[in-house]
Write a structure and sequence with these properties.
CATH class: Mainly Beta
Helix content: 10-25%
Largest sheet: 5 strands, antiparallel
Low-confidence stretches: 2-71, 74-90, 339-349
Number of domains: 1
CATH architecture: 7 Propeller
Shape: globular
Radius of gyration: 23 Å
CATH topology: Methylamine Dehydrogenase, Chain H
Oligomer: single chain
Length: 405
C-alpha cells in the first residue's frame, strides 16, 4: 500500500459485498477446502509465534513501531489513551553511518532562526542569510538580510521581516537564489511587527502564492509577481505553525491541536480535525498528507507524551512515536524525538534522536543520534537526499546524507 492508496481509502468508498452473498459463497466450499484452510491457519500462527519470539530477543535498542496501518486511528475529538511508545516491537531501525553525518560551523553569533532545504544545499536565516553547499559542506554565499521567517518556491527565496519593532508592518522580501539579488521588498499592509513573539510571524509558499501570518487569525495571500495583497483569510484561531502542500495551506492552532486547511484557490477554511488535549509543536505536509507533533501528558502516568500524528483526508492516526519536530519532503518524513515513553521523564531528555518514518507503514526505517544540546533551539528541513538540522545554540548546521545504504 502506498500514500495514493491511503488517500483513496480515506475518501468515501462504495458499499462492500453484502453479507448474504459472502455466506452463499462460503457454503459452496467443500469440506476438504475448509480443512486445508484450517491447516494453513495453524501453520501461520506457529510461524507468527516464532517471529514474535525472535523479535523479543533481538539485542540492541529498538524503536517501538506499529504494524503496517497500525496506530490509534480516529477522526473525533479525543485520542484513544495509551502510553506513547507502546506498540508492536518490530525490527530495529537501520543506523545511519557516522560518515554520512557532518557538523558544519556557521558564522558565530548569527542569531539563527530557520533553515530551508533545496536539492543542492540549505538556506539558513539569522542576522544574515547563508547558503551551505550540499556537496562541499561549506557556506558558499551570504546576503546581508535578516528576518523572522523563510520560505522557498523553487525560483525564489522569501524572507518575512520587520520594518521596526514598534508595531510597524511586516516586510516581505523576494531574493533570487542564483544571484542573491533582492527582487523586491513590500510592506504587508495591515500587519504589525513586534519581534519574535509567540505566536510568531510565519511565511509559506503554496500554489503560486505567498502566504503570510503575523501571528494572529489573519492569513494574507500575496501575489509573488507584484507583492500585491490578493486576499485576507480569517482562521478560527491563530496558527502556531504553518505548512504548505499543493493547493492547501495547513495551520495548527497556537496552544492547541486544531488542524485547519485553507484551499488556496477558493480560500475556503476547513477545520479538519482536533487532535485532543495538549498542543502541537511542528507541522509538515506533502501530497495531502499532514504530519503533526503533539505534546501532552499521559492520563495514566506522570510521563510526557510526545506523539507524531499522520492525517489524511480528516482521518488521523497516532503513531505513538515520541517526537518533537517533523519535516517532510522528497517523499520522506523525518523527525527529531525523545527516548521511548517508558524511559522518559522529561521532554528534553533525548533531543538528538533523528529518525525516518515510512509514511505508509509508519515504521521507523533509519535513525541516528546527533549531539544536540536542547530540543527547543533546533530546526529541521528535508532537501533531496539530505536532512539538515539547525543547531541554534552552537551556531552550526548538521548535514545528514540519506542516500547511503
Amino acid at each position: 500500500m502506498n500514500i495514493r492508496q491511503l488517500l483513496y481509502e480515506s475518501s468515501p468508498q462504495p458499499e462492500s459485498t453484502p453479507v448474504d452473498r459472502i455466506l452463499v459463497c462460503g457454503r459452496r466450499r467443500s469440506r476438504r477446502h475448509r480443512a486445508l484452510a484450517v491447516s494453513v491457519g495453524v501453520v501461520g500462527l506457529a510461524v507468527a509465534a516464532v517471529i514474535v519470539n525472535v523479535s523479543a530477543t533481538t539485542p540492541g535498542r529498538v524503536l517501538v513501531e506499529q504494524e503496517p496501518g497500525a496506530g490509534t486511528q480516529r477522526s473525533g475529538t479525543t485520542p484513544t489513551s495509551g502510553n506513547a511508545g507502546q506498540g508492536v516491537p518490530a525490527r530495529a531501525a537501520r543506523s545511519i553511518p557516522t560518515r554520512d553525518i557532518t557538523n558544519i560551523p556557521l558564522p558565530a553569533s548569527g542569531g539563527y532562526t530557520a533553515v530551508i532545504a533545496t536539492n543542492n544545499g540549505a538556506w539558513i536565516l539569522g542576522t544574515n542569510l547563508h547558503f551551505v553547499d550540499q556537496r562541499t559542506g561549506r557556506v558558499s554565499a551570504t546576503l546581508n538580510i535578516t528576518g523572522l521567517g523563510l520560505a522557498y518556491s523553487g525560483s525564489s527565496i522569501w524572507i518575512l521581516g520587520e520594518s521596526d519593532l514598534s508595531g510597524g508592518p511586516l516586510t516581505l522580501t523576494e531574493v533570487d537564489p542564483s544571484s542573491l539579488k533582492v527582487q523586491f521588498r513590500v510592506a504587508v499592509q495591515g500587519s504589525h511587527a513586534y519581534g519574535n513573539t509567540n505566536p510568531r510571524p510565519r511565511v509559506v509558499v503554496a500554489d503560486g502564492s505567498v502566504w503570510v501570518s503575523e501571528g494572529d487569525r489573519t492569513l494574507v495571500d500575496v501575489d509573488p509577481r507584484s507583492g500585491r495583497q490578493v486576499a485576507r483569510v480569517s482562521l478560527p484561531s491563530a496558527p502556531g505553525a504553518l505548512a504548505a502542500d499543493g493547493r492547501a495551506v495547513w495551520a495548527i492552532s497556537y496552544g492547541g491541536t486544531t488542524l485547519m486547511r485553507v484551499d488556496t484557490r477558493t480560500r475556503l477554511v476547513t477545520t479538519v480535525d482536533n487532535l485532543g488535549s495538549g498542543f502541537a509543536q511542528t507541522l509538515a505536509a506533502e501530497e495531502a498528507v499532514v504530519w503533526t507533533t503533539r505534546f501532552g501528558s499521559e492520563p495514566s502516568s506522570n510521563r510526557v507524551a510526545q506523539d507524531l500524528v499522520r492525517t489524511i483526508g480528516g482521518r488521523s492516526v497516532f503513531t505513538h512515536l515520541p517526537t518533537a519536530f517533523v519535516a517532510a519532503g522528497n517523499h520522506q518524513v523525518w523527525f527529531l524525538g525523545y527516548q521511548l515513553s517508558s524511559q522518559a521523564r522529561s521532554p528534553a531528555n533525548d533531543p538528538g534522536l533523528l529518525g525516518q518514518i515510512d509514511p505508509t507503514t509508519l515504521r521507523v526505517e533509519r535513525e541516528a543520534h546527533l549531539d544536540l544540546r536542547a530540543q527547543d533551539t533546533v530546526d529541521l528541513a528535508v532537501g533531496g537526499d539530505t536532512i539538515w538540522v539547525l543547531d541554534m545554540t552552537r551556531d552550526a548546521v548538521i548535514r545528514v546524507k540519506t542516500s547511503g545504504k
